[in-house]
Design goal:
single chain, alpha+beta, three-stranded antiparallel sheet, 41% helix, elongated
């Protein structure tokens, strides 16, 4: 039983680790003690994230055992989702868990990008303002105000 759990935990972290490379560590990462392939993990694996409740909800919606752990249980800024593997899990289960966590992170990144693009688009659509000058030879000419 303990060998099965060790193998599942090792498989989960080994499977997840390379998929985390393009994802910002504040969004989703393994804790530093699990970043080395030479450290055998426990079946209770923290997924570090600045968004523990949404990640937990996404994983739980797929029937996975994932609980948000936030302050005051852990220090502020060290939020995580606790994943608990058990002997009834298969390699496919832990791969599905890893893929679901990565997919969630990718969706969060895409959402952030869409929001940033929408902000840029809104600023591009702002009309240029012509502010008339008062008096002088050029009284009827306006100038374009710079955008802030």
């Amino acid at each position: 039983l303990s060998t099965t759990l060790l193998n599942l935990s090792t498989h989960f972290t080994s499977y997840l680790r390379p998929q985390l490379t393009p994802i910002p560590s504040t969004l989703l990462s393994l804790p530093s003690h699990l970043t080395s392939p030479h450290t055998p993990p426990s079946p209770i694996i923290p997924l570090m994230t600045s968004h523990p409740r949404p990640l937990s909800a996404a994983l739980r919606a797929l029937g996975m055992n994932a609980r948000p752990i936030t302050w005051p249980t852990v220090p502020k800024g060290r939020d995580r989702v606790r994943v608990c593997l058990h002997a009834g899990n298969t390699r496919e289960d832990v791969e599905r868990l890893a893929c679901a966590a990565v997919r969630w992170a990718q969706e969060m990144m895409a959402q952030d990008l869409r929001e940033e693009e929408a902000q840029v688009h809104v600023h591009e659509q702002e009309p240029e303002m012509k502010i008339p000058r008062r008096g002088g030879a050029h009284a009827e000419q306006g100038f374009v105000a710079s955008k802030l």
